[in-house]
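Write out this protein's structure.
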Amino acid sequence: MTEEGIIDPATFATKPKVYTGTISGSDLVDLDERVAGPEGGLDYEVTALLDKQRRKVVSYIIKGFAQLTCQISMESFRHEVEISERLVLVDHESQLPPIEMESDEEDFMVADGPLDLRDLVEDAVILSLPMIPRKPGIEEVPKVAEAPRRESPFAALKRPK
């Protein structure tokens, strides 16, 4: 991967460094098992900086779509992706805040070296996808008509002679 695709927390400065780009659906290797096909693509803007408290912060906005397979109808459908997150990078697990002190505005992540931009974007998309994809408009499993009950062949054995 080129230097443009790497975010190195050791080089963060108070002046933000912005990375922008597009990833096509066919380039999303880790999503192969989750998507219905190579259609789709993601536009991203990732900003890396030191905040006022001198914390290493990575903010990103990801927009695009992926083709998913509905787990009810088994039809392919377009799933819109729109993610806006803020990560605070820490060097060691000991720097992670206690769970009760975490906020909804930012997440914490241990980063002990450079981050691959494509992996960061792909991981964010994987986490945003539904566990059980459903095509819009499909709410529940369609009812299957019950077949008439047949008498068990062993029922004749239960009858007295």
